[in-house]
Amino acid sequence: MKAATEEYQAPRAGTVQALKRLFGEMKPYSFLLTGTLLLAIVLAGTAPLRPWLIQQAVDGPMTRKDLASLAQYGWVILALLLGESGLRYLFGLWSVQLGQSVVKDLRRKLYEHLTRYRPSFYESRSVGALGSRVINDLEAIAELFAQGFLTMAGDVLQLIVILSVMLYTDWRLTLVSLMVMPLLLWVTWWFKEKVHSSFTEVRSRTSSLNSFLQERLSNLQLIPLFHREEEEKLAFQKENQGLAEAHLNGVWYYSVYFPVVEVLTALAMGLMVWYGAVRVQDGALSTGVLVAFLVYINQLFRPLRLLADKFNSLQMGIIASSRVFQLIDLKAWPAEINAVADQPTQGIDIQIQNLNFGYQKDVRVLHDIQLHMKPGEVWAVVGSSGSGKSTLAQMLVRFYEPDSGRILLDGLPHTELTLKQLRRRIVYVPQELIFFQRDRFG
């Protein structure tokens, strides 16, 4: 049985190379990428406007009890809020469109590669694990665009702008507000590490369960034949329980992290209000600045609450993209050299000279095979089960390459023909009967 579990670890190529490859995949969609980045800059620049307008309204019309001017501020703030909502909608839409466009291209490339790989590639890999990579890893890349580096870049830019405005407005009040920041950063780092481990376990368990189901469903008739219903039931319960526990571990970290962050946010607000109220009473600070800082803190802490989760999406997306690119870069199909001119033929002369082959280096399946099949002749290769009959037929169409010896087609080595030319001359009919499900008219 093939190994069902694949470890979800980043390959040695590193995250920088994976990100470069992803940016390369985004070149056909440069308009969406540029537009999304511009929207991130605009949203970060407009973030301090609402608190600033609230500050002006409190220190101006509200202090003077000018209701008409205060209403005008209200309408401006409402218009600004609606404008921000529209831009955020467009930002999210373009991010998802960019991600899905890149994933569509990667899915096409990956499928084209998988359909060209030799059978030996699949003999050492679980089909369920490969299916998990095609589906789950590509979905992780899509999530990378929807909740990953683009939104993270916008959040980090917003944090820089908000913090700069706060320091410019009143650096003392800003420092008091940030007293809980070291503890918040430590809690966020702890959450990121734990959730990353949990998500890694979830993906590994998912791959294992997919492989388990694929192997059992592909050979379902063997289970009742050998009376293994109870054993397979227990094996499935073990796989299912492992996946459920991995999900529950992640939920537990979320249930701890977000309440702690809410408590720290409330603590920061309490410290800020206490210190700000003292300074307002002393006449060193306006009421509008104190009210504006309440909004600033919300805008500052809200992205921090989400950055840990988004950073995890970024990590998982990079790991997934590294795995996908690793699979795409694997050229597990026969090499094709400059082909000879293709000429129509009514028959084919096949010579097999001194052919040796083994699936393992020390175990030979074919030993010094010598054959000469002339056009029009009918041959039958007879032997016991496992003697190499199918292997010999598969070597004619280059499913496998010989360890030594060569195969000549019309006097030419079969490696000098392109796969298309080779398939035109030789048709291999497998022993297994395989049907592809499709609409009869499609």
What does this structure look like?
Helix content is 68%, strand content 5%. It is mostly helical and 442 residues long. The chain folds into two domains: 15-329, ABC transporter type 1, transmembrane domain (ABC transporter transmembrane region fold, Up-down Bundle); 350-425, Rossmann fold. The longest helix is centred in the middle third of the chain and has 53 residues, at 229-281. Mean pLDDT is 81; it is low at 1-13.
Strand line-up across the major sheet? 2-1-3-4
Beta-strand level of the residues, as a percent range? 5-15%
Global mean pLDDT: 81
Question: What name goes with the CATH superfamily of the largest domain?
Answer: ABC transporter type 1, transmembrane domain
User: Which spans have pLDDT < 50 for at least 5 consecutive residues?
Assistant: 1-13
Derived from helix and strand composition plus strand pairing, the structural class reads: mainly alpha
Name the overall outline: elongated
Count of alpha/pi helices: 14
CATH topology of the largest domain: ABC transporter transmembrane region fold
The largest sheet is: 4 strands, antiparallel
Spatial separation of the terminal alpha carbons = 36 Å
Order of helices and strands: HHHHHHHHHHHHEEHEEH
Please compute the radius of gyration using only Cα atoms: 32 Å
* Helix content bin: 55-70%
CATH hierarchy: architecture of the largest domain: Up-down Bundle
Q: How many individual domains?
A: 2
Topology of this protein?
Layout lengths: L14 H11 L4 H17 L2 H16 L2 H48 L4 H5 L3 H21 L1 H21 L1 H7 L3 H38 L3 H4 L3 H53 L5 H43 L20 E8 L8 E8 L15 H8 L7 E6 L2 E2 L5 H7 L17
Antiparallel strand pairs: 1-2, 1-3, 3-4
Helix pairs in contact: 1-12, 2-4, 2-7, 3-4, 3-12, 4-6, 6-7, 6-9, 6-12, 7-8, 7-12, 8-11, 9-11, 9-12, 11-12
